[in-house]
Design brief:
single chain, alpha+beta, three-stranded antiparallel β-sheet, transferase
Length: 273
Amino acid sequence: MTSDRWSTHAITVGPAGVTKRFRATDHDRCAREWRALRLLSRYAPGLAPEPLRADLAAREPTVVMSGLAGAPLRGAPLTAGQVEALAAAVAAVHGSLPPDVLASLPPRPGRPEELSGLVRSWYPRARPQAGDQVGRAMDDGMDWLSGSVPETGGPPDVPWVFGPGDGNLANYLWDGSRVQVVDFEDSGRSDRAFELAEITEHAAAWVEVPLDVPRFLRHCDLTPAESVRLPHCRRLLALVWLFLLSFDAATGAPRNPPGTAERQAGRLRDLLG
């Protein structure tokens, strides 16, 4: 899960391809991006940019890939066909790798156990600064989290998938007939319920133009175990975003419109029921 506030790279578009340059502290992110592009090129060609070359040893490592012609799905109303194509692209990424290849990958960063630890560390400093609506939602979220079962080693009865690791709709490009996918710096082994929640709870899915989440999820053929897990993942990620948006609102130059954290508080409390 990569917040827009924590950009780890700069992108340059040129005739020789798209260059993604990472910060000196983000060699691991660059390596994950390169690995994902190479794997998808082999096992799901056409779904993502083609890997052209990389310099993983540079002080600021780079990946060069082919350009894609599609327009981002973020910030515009989506037709029923686009929502269906989005779900198809997501499913294609999730199921792209053979089981033995998938099993050899490390888990993606930002798994639920990591996020649970993060929000517990954020709460003591964020809560005193929060307004009434946001603060009450933080309290409700932490109460829910304290009663949830800690996750270690992966969810039971839920199969692993290849996870892109970032649910921002700007990473899904519509070319008029299909959706292609970019941005794999947080990719790795994951599970489908968590990756779907990354999309439905990302600020990009509702701050500007809301994604039709029920329609999107109807196109995702979840197993019974995944259907049980999905609400848990959505609540956790909504809680994470509540903190991120409250931090954003407290800056001198917030990236989101006034009241976004309060809107997120309402979204979280709806998910908590």
